[in-house]
Specification:
By secondary structure, this protein is an alpha+beta fold. The protein folds into 2 domains: 51 residues; 177 residues, no CATH class. The protein is built from 4 helices and 12 strands. The strands form 2 sheets. Strands 3, 4, 5, 6, 8, 9, 10 and 12 form an 8-stranded mixed beta sheet that branches. Strands 1-2-11-7 form a 4-stranded antiparallel beta sheet, with no helix packed on it. About 15% of the residues have low confidence. It comes from Candidatus Enterococcus ferrettii.
C-alpha cells in the first residue's frame, strides 16, 4: 500500500469514529456559543451608549438683581429685576411664584416728657434672647427673640409675617401695602387685565403663579416680571429697622402635555389655552 493510500485509509477511520464526531460537534457548539455571547454584549453596549447620547437636560434659573437691599428709606425705589433664563438643553415652559416675609423690632416709647412718645429709636437689649434671629432664615423670625447688632446690642422682634404667598392685586396685611412691587409695565396680566391677541412675551397671573406666555429655548430669557421695589413715603416710623424678604420660586417643565396634569392646570384656566398649541402631545 502506498503512502497516499495509507493516509486516505486513516482519514476514513477517523471520519467514521463516533469519538471524533462527538469532539467535532462539541467544538462547533462552543464556537457558536462564544460568538452569540460576544454579539449580545456588543449590542447591549451600543444600546446603552445610544440612550446616554440622547439624554438632554431640562434646566432653568432665576436671574436678575436679587441682592439684599439695606437701609431702604421711605419714598425711595430700589432695583429688583426678576426674570427666568433657560440654561438647559431643551425648550421649557416656566412659571414663578412670590412669597414675602417681614419682621420688625421694638421701638423706644419711653422718655422724660409727659407725652411719652419716646425717641423713635429701636430698643436695645444688652443680652440676647435665644435662639437668635438669622436674617437669611425666616424660620428663626420669632416674636420675642433678638437680632444681634453687636455683642452687647440686640433688637427684639415684636411683629412677624412669614412666607406669605403674594397674591397679585390682592389684599396684603400691614405694613406690606407700603412695600410696592413694581411689575414690568404692560407685561403682566390677570383676569381683570386680559392680554390682547397681539401681546407676547408676557406674564399671566393665575391661582398663585405667574405663567410666562412663551416657550423658552436654550439660552433664552423671559421678560422681567419685576423691575423694582418702592417703599412708600407713608411707611410708618414704628417699622423702622425692619427686615423684608421677597423670595421668587420657579418651576420649569418640558413642552409636553403632561404639563397640565403636573401643574394642575384645568381646561377652563387661561394658562391651558395659552399653552395648548405650544406643547407636544
Amino acid at each position: 500500500m502506498s503512502q497516499r493510500e495509507k493516509l486516505r485509509h486513516l482519514l476514513r477511520v477517523f471520519y467514521k469514529s463516533k469519538a471524533f464526531f462527538a469532539f467535532f460537534s462539541l467544538l462547533l457548539s462552543l464556537l457558536l456559543v462564544m460568538g452569540s455571547t460576544y454579539a449580545w454584549i456588543t449590542s447591549n453596549d451600543e444600546r446603552v451608549n445610544r440612550t446616554e447620547a440622547n439624554k438632554r437636560k431640562l434646566s432653568a434659573k432665576i436671574d436678575g438683581d436679587l441682592d439684599m437691599v439695606r437701609h431702604f428709606a421711605p419714598g425711595t425705589k430700589e432695583s429688583k429685576e426678576i426674570r427666568v433664563t433657560n440654561n438647559g438643553e431643551v425648550p421649557a415652559v416656566v412659571r414663578l411664584s412670590l412669597t414675602e416675609s417681614f419682621v420688625s423690632f421694638e421701638t423706644d416709647v419711653k422718655d422724660n416728657h409727659s407725652i411719652g412718645n419716646g425717641n423713635g429709636d429701636l430698643t436695645s437689649y444688652g443680652t440676647p434672647i435665644l435662639p437668635a434671629i438669622n436674617l437669611n432664615d425666616t424660620s428663626t423670625w420669632i416674636i420675642g427673640k433678638t437680632y444681634e447688632i453687636s455683642a452687647d446690642k440686640h433688637y427684639k422682634a415684636n411683629y412677624v409675617l412669614k412666607d406669605l404667598p403674594y397674591v397679585y392685586q390682592g389684599t396684603r396685611p400691614e405694613p406690606m401695602p407700603a412695600i410696592q412691587l413694581d411689575f414690568t409695565s404692560g407685561k403682566v396680566f390677570d383676569s381683570n387685565t386680559q392680554p390682547s391677541g397681539t401681546d407676547s412675551a408676557y406674564w399671566y397671573y393665575e391661582d398663585g403663579f405667574f405663567y410666562y406666555s412663551e416657550v423658552l429655548n436654550s439660552g433664552e430669557s423671559s421678560t422681567n416680571l419685576l423691575t423694582s421695589v418702592t417703599l412708600n413715603s407713608a411707611y410708618l416710623n414704628r417699622y423702622k429697622g425692619a427686615f423684608y424678604k421677597l423670595v421668587p420660586e420657579m418651576d420649569a417643565h418640558d413642552i409636553t402635555k403632561e404639563l397640565f396634569s403636573d401643574w394642575g392646570i384645568n381646561s377652563t384656566d387661561f394658562a391651558y389655552g395659552m399653552y395648548q398649541n405650544q406643547l407636544y402631545k
